[in-house]
Amino acid sequence: MSAGPETTNVSSLGKGDGLHQQVLASFPLCDMTEEDLTQNPQFCKLLATLAQHVDKTGLTVQLKTELDKAEQKLQSQRSHWLRSEILHRGLQEMIQDHCVKKRHAIVPPDQSMFYETMQKCLLVAQCVRQLDPSDTTNQDQPSVLGLTPQHLTELIPSEKNVQRMRRSLPQQLEKHLKEKCLSLLSYYQPEWENESEGLKTIKLSHLSALLDKEKKRAESLKETCRENTVLLQRQTQLYLSELTKCIQLLQSLILDHRLKIQTDLDGKKLDYFEGKCELVLQKIKTEMVEIQLDTYTVDSISAHRKIREKLEWELKACKAEKQSVELKLSSFEILGKEFESLAEEYCRLRQEIEMKNWALKEFTKYNEK
């Protein structure tokens, strides 16, 4: 039975892209994209139905009503507390201003009596409140040094001075608050500082409305900024997803194109390197010929030829001598081991003869000197 109204509510939100946009607008804090809603139509319908029962922050209608009532009550209590706090601070500021003024100028006695009486009354009231917390808590608190509020009421000034202070207090407090408001007005609009007091008073009556208007404008700008931030984040995610798809498509195109032309490219590279190697080899040969031409002149070539001929003749002579020596050695080997001992003895004697000839030459040179 309940499926009919829900279907009607969903269909009343819109279809296709309109439904997606309304769902995204109803849940700005959710990290969703239109693509997510397109891929999950049932989830989109669920969110569209849920949007009829909750607000943008996710609170139900009943909870939102109770929260608004609690906020109104809190604002009322806050306003009451702020009024009391403002009056209390205003009185303290008046007392401080009086103390400063008393140090720099002579103050009339009745005015001094007024501020002294007010200061004592404020101090006694503050102490009584500290000793009797029944207005703020339901728990009993132990007394401080055995004092009770009745002990402090004895410190209140005389009734005559209190009555006189109360009669003058509204006028003095109004004057003080008016000066503070005028200073606030001068801070808010410095160009109004030199205007007349009557015109300042008139503009002061509109200051609250102006400040409230500025506050609402600031809140509106903050809300707009927040919405723009959410929209920017959503658009950034969409842009990144599209950019990722484009990059993937580009990568696939690059790979396909590279595979197709890789063979031709390798062949062209091979031909290029072969030609380059051939050119380098020809250049090396040219450099070698130039070096030979610079190194070997006609005279040096003829000299080298003569040296070569002489070396070849000596080589032939050495080969012939080698062959004769090898023949002699082969004939000596036939004689056996006895000839080997004789050959060794012959070598030893030859070495001794050479040593003695050298010593005889050295001795002869020394005698001649």
From TrEMBL:
Coiled coil (residue ranges): none
Top-level taxonomic group: Eukaryota
Family annotation (InterPro entries): HAUS4 (IPR029327), HAUS4_met (IPR026214)
CC annotations in GO: HAUS complex
GO MF annotations in UniProt: microtubule minus-end binding
GO BP terms: centrosome cycle; spindle assembly
Signal peptide: none
Stated name of the protein: HAUS augmin-like complex subunit 4
Native source organism of the sequence: Amphiprion ocellaris
